[in-house]
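Sample log: Hydroxymethylbilane synthase.
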Amino acid sequence: MSKLIRIGTRDSELALWQAKTVQQQLEHLGHQTVLVPVKSTGDMLLDKPIYELGITGVFTRILDVAMLNNEIDIAVHSLKDVPTVLPQGIVQAAVLKRGNVRDTLVFKDNEEFLSQREAVIATGSLRRKAQWLNRYPTHTVVGLRGNVNTRLQKLEDHEDWNAAIFAAAGIGRIGVRPEDAINLDWMIPAPGQGAIMITARENDEELLAICTEINHEETEICTTIERTFLNLLEGGCSAPIGALAFIKNEEVSFQGVLLSLDGSKKIEVTRKEQLGNHHNIAQFAADYVLERGGSRVMNDLKDADKHTQVFSTKNLSEMQRQRFQNVKVESTDFLKISLNRIPKPLLKSPIQNVIITSQNAVEAITAIVPKEELQFKNIYCVGRRTKKLIESKIGKVKHSENYAKLLAEYLVEFIDGTEVTHFCSDIRLDELSQTLEKNHIKVNEVEAYKTILDATVIDPKVEGIMFYSPSTVAAYLENNEPNNKVAYCIGDTTANEAKKHFEDVRVARIPTVESVIDLVNENYASN
């Protein structure tokens, strides 16, 4: 090629080293080149972690713009920094032979902290942070930004830091790797780590042909698998995703990982295929991860910057959380339960009619006397799950209703005798007792458990609250205001209490947690 090839690069020491490596290989083939250094957004904004900048390709975008504006002919990147989907009109032209793929731990003093409960590790990578916390959950990970030399200096300057994590290729290429640094062979690297990538304009056939001459095919195969895996998981620099492929004895081996931000959840996959039959490795690995909880982890990652929309006043199970559709929810128990010691003689005495309105009452009864010693003749209850628990731990339920009001109306009509024993909480609505006593049915109330209101302060930005009893409404109001929020209620009794304080009150079709979740989904589906 007779014309001068303008090589675009960031102006950091490492980026210039990489660009000069490309320059040397091109000039060795007889081409004339010139370096065109530019400063990227990622280099200019050093006060925030990469994942908080909100820019796709934070280190590559300015070079993409320069190329599309015909200010440079090719661009040189660290492949791990390049988005898996390139801008329209720009393509991957080549990757050079890969260097050290590993992450490296650089100590401030020594490695004794690795066996200690408390330690401080510095890194700006969510992937490194998540994997470190998965292995050392009691350690603290702090943010670290800047070029390699800046990061090494920050490690030196912070007295409370024990170590920092770097890409082995980066500190090795510019000759600043400390002698006592160690490679973290257990840590799966970023897709494309250790490789140098060249991009060019899609329609520049002459330059694409030239770059093909310095392309390293084995590195291209491996990094393509890694980046396809990343793309299929829909991750970017803000997702804790690791991937590594390598070729040995005509066999391609792959290892991938997806983690939650705090490292508590980790899903790994490995796969081997003969070279030539390797094209489906990335798809297999991504499907494997997603089917084993990866979909939920990715949804949580996507929602990480999204404010909580709905708060549940009852702690939700993982299965219940998965029922939400594009709604970010938090949950905790606003009610704490303390079981009372019900007198044994009472429980062992024959009781003709028993009313149980919660699962907590079942637990309180069976904690004192085994089912074999109970002499309950007719058991009436409220709620499908309460009925299931009663029949598992106490005995057959004669009749159940979804609401206390409906149960009271049934008993007025069909009860055997004129007296009932109601195992209840110290906090309760009097509707059931009042209805029965109004109809000359005596109610003996036994406090089976105490309900303690224990609400947290909710972010004012939360748009809706999920309530499961009048007591959860009362608990919420102890530390929070309605503030135009939507009240999603499990039933009419709860809704009636909520209507005293909330303007927008919605009631689930059936009194289950799942039905309340469906109510939330319906609201957001219509927005």
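Observation: The chain has five domains: 1-96+193-215, 103-183, 217-304, 306-334+454-524, 336-453.
Observation: The longest strand covers residues 442-453.
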